[in-house]
Every structure is written in C-alpha cells, then in structure tokens.
Design goal:
This protein is mainly alpha-helical. Helices cover about 65% and strands about 5% of the residues. The protein has 33 helices and 12 strands. The strands form 5 sheets. It has a 4-stranded mixed β-sheet. A hairpin with a 2-residue loop joins β6 and β7. α18 (about 405-415) packs parallel to α20. It is rod-shaped and about 185 Å long. The two termini are about 20 Å apart.
C-alpha cells in the first residue's frame, strides 16, 4: 500500500467516529409467528369470533334501517310485547269522526211566509175580480184574469196558468175559496215546520223518513224530515179531503206546488262546534303488539303503518336493556364460519403466498375486522335519539359506512384477488348487519370492485383518492336509480347519494394516510413507496453516485436486466428495478475493494490474503442489510440485498487460495470452500432469483471481448447452468419455462445495451495502450466475473 494511503487510513482511524452498525434482529419466535400453522389456526378462530361479535352480537332487528315504501327482504318479529300510540290510526279515527259529524240544519220559514203573502194578495185580486165580473165583457174578463195570473207569477217562481185561475174563480164563492186556500197553507206550513229537502240535491243524503239535527231557537233536536215529494203528497191529500171536483183540486195542487221549496240550511257554526268537541274528546289509538307478532313481512313493501310500528319497536327496544339470547346469532355464526372457510379455500387456490405467511393473514384479518368495526359504529348510530326519532336522517346510515376501505387497502398491499375476496366478505357482512339488504350487498360490492379496478397497480397517492371517489360515485348512481324505483322521497335520496359521495372521498383520503403505517407494521411495500425510493436523490443513492460510481452504474445495468425479465414472467418489475438500485449499497463501506470502483488502477486485494479478500467481498451483503435497516428500506428490498448472491462461491479468491496452497504457500487442506461462499440465504422469490442471475450476468458480460449474439447466448447459458448446478435456484418458485423466458429477455437486453459503435479516427498513440495497462484491465474483468 502506498505511504499516502497508509497515512490516510491512520488519520481516519483516530479522527473518524466509529460507525454504529444497526443489525437486524433475528428471532426464532418471530419465525415461529410467521410460519406456524398453529398461529394460522389461531388467526382463523379469532377472526370468526371477532367478526361475529362485531357484526352480529347485540344487533337487534329493531335497528334495521328500513324506510316507508322500501322493499323488505326480512321478517321482523317482536321479541317482546309492547304498546304504542299510533299517530296514523289516530288520524284515521279523527277523519272518520269528522266525516261522520251529523249535519245540523236551521229551518227557514221565510219561503213559506213569502208564499203566504203572495197567496193572500192573490185572494184579494180574485175577490176584486168577483166584484166586477158581472160588469165585464168576456174579453175584458179574460184580460183581467190574465193580468191577475201574470202579477202573481211575477212575484216568485210561480206557474199559475189562466185556466187554473179560471177554474178556481168559477168553482165556488169567496168563502169556500178562502177555506180551500187556508187548508193548503196549513198543510204547507206544517211541512215547512218539519223541514223540506230536495232528494235531487246531493248535499242532502237522506232516505225515506229521515231524521236530522234541527237547530231551533238554540236548541238542537232530532226531527223527521220531508222531501219535496212528501210535502206535495201531504198537500194533495189535504186538498182532496175538501170534497171538490178533480179539476178544481188539480188547479189548487198546481197553485200550491210552487210554494213547496227546500227550507233546510246547514248551520256551519254548530257543526264546527261539534267537530271541536269530538276532537277534544278523541284519545290516541293505542296499538298493542304481542310477543312473536310479525311487524315486517319479507318480500313486501313497507307500508306506513308497518314503518310506524317498526319505529315504535325501535324506540321501545332502545329503552329496554334486557339481554335476550338471539337464536339468529347461531345462524350468523355459521354464516361467518362458512364464509371464512370458503375464503381459506379460495386463498389456497389463488393466493398460496397468503396462506403460507401469517403476516399476510394477519394483515387481511386485521383490516377486515377494523373495517367491520367502523361499519358497526355507523350501524349503532341508529340507536341514538338523533337518528332514532328522525327516519330521514337514519336513512343515510347505510350510505356512510366505509365498505370500500378494507378492499382498497388489501388490493394495494396484497393484490386485486385478495381485495375482491375482502370486498365480498365486507359487503356480505354489512348487508346482513343492516337487515339482509340485498341492495346494500350489491351496491357495496359494486363500489368496492370499481375502486379496486381504479387502484390496480397504483403508483401515485392521488390515484388512491380517485379510487375512493369512484366508489362514492358508484354508490350515488346506484342509490339514485334504485331508490327512485322504490319511490323514496327526493330529499331522502339526495341525502343518501350525497353521503355516499362524501364517504367515498373520505375513504380515499384516509387510506392515503394509513397506508405507510400498515406498510411498516406488516412489512408490506406498495408501488407508491417503491416509486418514492427510486428517486435518484435518495441519500444512500446519492452516496453511491459520489462514492461508488462504478457500483452505481453496475446497479443500473442490473436493474434494466431484472426489470425486463420480471415483465416477461409476471414478476414485480418495479420491485426488481428499485431493489437492484439498492442491492449493492453495502459496497459503500469499502468501495475501493470492488473492481468497478478502482479507477486509478490500484487494487488493495493485491496486498491481502485470499481469505481476507473473500471476507471483505462477502461483507458487502451484511453491510448492505445494515444500511438498509438504517435507512428504513422496505422488507422486500432488504431480503433481496441478503439473497442477491445466494450461497455462491467467490471463485476468483477461492481458486487463488487453492493455487497458493498447491504452490506450497499454505497447506491445501486448510482451504475451506465455505470460507469463500456467501452466507445466503438462497433466493426465496422470483424477483430475488432474477436479480441474482442478472447481477452475475452483468458482471460477466464485461469480460466479452466481442459482443455477438452467439457470445452473449453462450455467456447467458453458462451463467444459468452454473447457478442451477450449484443449487442457487432451488428455493425459488421459478420454473424451467420461466427460466427460458428470462434467458431470452437477458439476451435481448444485453445485445441492446452492449451494442458497438463506429470507431472514430484518433492519434496513433491513443490506439496502442501499454501492455501493463492491458494486463490490469484483464485482472479487473476477471475479478468482476468472480464476484
């Protein structure tokens, strides 16, 4: 080592602070929690118990949110006897009483008195005619009779004809005429006193021999009434009893018929007073509902009376604190058990990674339980007086439940398939909780599915908010269409869709806030976090660019290879790319010991033993893990840092040690292969296996003297065979078919990244490098291949 380098090392030893290594805690207990089947069973049992307790224990059928005119899918039965005053039935009784209020009439004698005056005046005119009759000619007599009839008819709506007046004048003397007139007036007066009504008048709904309330001088009494026909019959009988010729009797009947007029007038004041008395005396109608009686029937439309009875039952139940065993709870426990069992089989078929990781199971169970707890909280709001006595306000409760919260979170952290499974479970339990609401199940599942679709492969936090808004829009649209068909009030529908929109937006905002917390607790990494880590200005990446530029360039090349390969086999290309950027951060501790950073031609390994050099080379993995923990890198990236070399052999220094041993410098038997192998573990998942292959291939590709398709294919085949034969891919899920696709991807990427360029003319001295320089370059390439 040059003297200047030794001096720098001495200064650094005395004046630099000792670096505090942050090591990863390793615990067999944590491993047990992650992989134990007993823990998996415990998660399952606890999930069943907690879901039952949260979703169904204490949920009364009285709290089901049903509205008038809404289609019910459940039967609600009274768990105990209760009574309540029915406003609807009381109002119906009030209307019945008001409609049956008897009509009170006043008897109006004025029509009779007016007719009496007109008849008396007619008698005077007839007496005057009789006095002058003998002195008049026939024509004059006819004219006078016509004049008398016309004068009489003009006084009212009378129809006295000249013929009838002539018959009356010619029949008898004045005294007889007066007696007949008095007989008719007496009969007419009696009819008027009883009360006369017109049967053709629809406002008088009386039958034969009807009785009505008559107000006479402030006293109300019942009287028998006469119709106009009855009055005319009485008048005809009275006149016929006078023993006069038929033509004369008929003339008198026609004279008096115009005096028969309805004389009943409604006394609205008296009737209003009776109405007030009835209303004051009306007591509320009390409805008694026996225990076991059906309040709401399934597959029926909720009527106004049923809704009132349900509201009363809710209020009664809220005032009672009796704890009764609900037989329906047993059925719901079986429902939860069946649903989670089906979910387990689904996970086993479609998402084996979750079934093999208690961390993923715990994440799924925790998010579902917390989401159901929030939904139960919204459901319980219906027990508060603010919602209990205001049906329009309680109608929004199903629409403020955050049913898309857990599905979006699970879809982002675990994938779309577990997200859809979560959406199905949340929607089902919510629908049952709110009274087996089929519409609520469809609406919640639709909104969650759309939100998952919007948030698939999410890489920006704003996209999460958009997913929540999309869920709210689905709820609003479904509510508008479905509840309009159910004929719910427009005001209620507007409140419901507004609540759905607002809840969807708030869910998106809430998820953005809690995602980092869940990522830290459950060691999950989202594409959002990966994109944030891919910023070249990340502190540790900036250090690599400045302190180990060769390693930084190598990392970018490996990132290109791994990203393209992951795309062809369905791996997480973004995780592969970002992990490659960090996979060699451990080289920052001693960057000068790695050939890609030895720009001045000095190689410190020349002065070290092979075992010490191998120890330094191996240490960059552990140093990288420690730096990853220090900078709080996500778990998958740290796992890739640890696994990206597997247990590969550091061949350059191993062969160098064997060669030295064979040359007598040390005992060959003392060269242990394990000393020159990385500590591992071997790659455990697709991305880490692909990065192991890409890392080896990128380093080896620097040894190609000429880049041709054949050379690249042979190099790729050799690297793959070495790792397969060495068992480095034994623990990874890669198949042979996927390895073939990865080979093709690597070859394509290398041929395009190692392309040649046209040689530009240069001075002769620049084209002839020294022999020593060529030897140093060859040594660095060989070292990079072996590392």
């Amino acid at each position: 080592m040059p003297l200047s380098e030794q001096f720098k090392a001495l200064i650094a030893r005395f004046f630099s602070k000792k670096r505090m290594r942050k090591t990863e805690t390793s615990s067999s207990f944590l491993t047990f929690l992650e992989n134990s089947k007993l823990v998996s069973l415990l998660i399952f049992v606890l999930s069943v118990a907690l879901i039952v307790v949260i979703s169904f224990v204490g949920v009364r059928s009285s709290n089901y949110q049903l509205l008038e005119n809404q289609y019910s899918t459940i039967r609600i039965v009274a768990a105990e006897t209760f009574s309540y005053p029915s406003d609807i039935l009381t109002e119906r009784e009030r209307e019945r009483l008001l409609n049956e209020v008897p009509q009170v009439f006043d008897i109006d004698m004025q029509p009779y008195e007016a007719f009496d005056d007109h008849i008396r005046q007619l008698l005077v005119d007839m007496e005057r005619f009789s006095t002058v009759e003998e002195d008049l000619s026939a024509a004059a007599a006819e004219n006078m009779i016509r004049e008398i009839a016309e004068n009489f008819n003009a006084k009212g709506n009378y129809r006295l004809s000249e013929a009838d007046l002539t018959n009356i004048l010619e029949f008898a003397d004045l005294e007889t005429r007066n007696e007949l007139i008095d007989t008719g007036l007496i009969s007419l007066r009696e009819s008027y006193k009883l009360g006369i009504y017109d049967r053709n008048d629809n406002s008088f709904m009386f039958g034969n021999d009807s009785v009505a309330l008559i107000n006479r001088e402030g006293s109300i009494s019942q009287r028998r009434l006469e119709s106009t026909e009855d009055a005319l019959t009485s008048l005809r009988i009275a006149l016929n009893a006078a023993n006069v010729p038929p033509n004369v009797a008929a003339a008198y009947n026609r004279l008096f018929r115009d005096g028969v007029q309805p004389n009943l007038k409604r006394n609205e004041g008296e009737m209003e007073q009776i109405r007030r008395q009835l209303q004051d005396s009306l007591e509320p109608v009390i409805v008694r509902v026996e225990k076991g009686a059906s309040i709401i029937e399934p597959n029926t439309e909720v009527s106004a009376e049923q809704f009132e009875q349900l509201t009363a039952y809710r209020q009664h139940s809220a005032s009672q604190n009796s704890a009764q065993f609900d037989l329906q709870l047993v059925g719901r426990m079986l429902l939860v058990l069946a649903m989670l069992t089906a979910a387990t089989f689904y996970i086993r078929l479609e998402d084996k990674e979750t079934l093999q990781s208690n961390g993923r199971l715990g994440l799924l169970a925790s998010v579902v339980i917390i989401n159901l707890l929030l939904i139960r909280t919204c459901f319980q709001l219906g027990s508060f007086e603010l919602f209990l006595y205001d049906s329009r306000l309680s109608a929004i409760l199903p629409y403020i439940t955050p049913t898309a919260l857990a599905p979006i979170i699970v879809a982002i952290l675990m994938g779309s398939r577990p997200g859809l499974l979560t959406a199905l479970m949340i929607s089902l339990f919510t629908a049952v909780m709110f009274g087996e609401r089929h519409d609520l199940f469809v609406m919640s599942f639709l909104a969650s599915t759309v939100a998952i679709f919007v948030c698939r492969n999410v890489r920006k936090r704003g996209r999460v908010v958009m997913g929540g808004v999309a869920a709210g829009v689905c709820i609003a649209a479904f509510t508008l269409l479905y509840n309009t068909v159910d004929r719910l009030p427009s005001e209620t529908i507007f409140k419901q869709l507004s609540a759905g929109l607002l809840t969807g937006m708030l869910q998106g905002v809430l998820i953005v806030g809690i995602l980092p917390i869940l990522e830290g607790i459950f060691k999950r990494t989202t594409d959002i976090t990966l994109l944030e880590l891919s910023d070249y200005n990340h502190p540790i990446l900036r250090r690599m660019q400045l302190e180990a530029p060769g390693t930084w360039h190598h990392s970018l090349m490996v990132a290109n290879l791994a990203e393209n390969a992951c795309n062809v086999v369905g791996g997480n290309a973004l995780l592969a790319r970002v992990s490659c950027m960090f996979h060699d951060i451990g080289k920052l501790v001693k960057p000068e010991y790695f050939t890609e950073n030895q720009l001045d031609g000095h190689n410190p390994h020349d002065e070290k033993t092979p075992s010490f050099s191998a120890l330094i080379i191996k240490s960059h993995v552990k140093e990288g893990v420690d730096l990853g923990l220090t900078y709080k890198l996500p778990r998958p990236i740290i796992d890739i840092i640890r696994q990206h070399h597997g247990t590969n052999l550091i061949r350059f220094f191993y062969h160098k040690a064997v060669k030295q041993a064979e040359g007598g410098e040390q005992d060959g038997a003392t060269v242990q292969e394990s000393t020159y192998r990385y500590d591992g573990p071997k790659p455990q998942f697709k991305e880490s296996a692909i990065i192991l292959l890409a890392d080896s291939l990128e380093a080896a590709s620097r040894s190609l003297s000429k880049v041709t398709s054949q050379n690249v294919e042979e190099l790729v085949e050799r690297i793959f065979n070495l790792n397969i034969e060495d068992g480095q891919l034994d623990d990874s899920p890669l198949t042979m078919a996927e390895l073939a696709k990865i080979k093709e991807s690597f070859i394509f990427t290398l041929l395009n990244s190692l392309h040649s360029r046209i040689a530009y003319p240069a001075p002769q001295q620049d084209l002839a490098p020294s022999k020593k320089s060529n030897e140093r370059k060859s040594e660095r390439v060989e070292a990079s291949v072996r590392h």
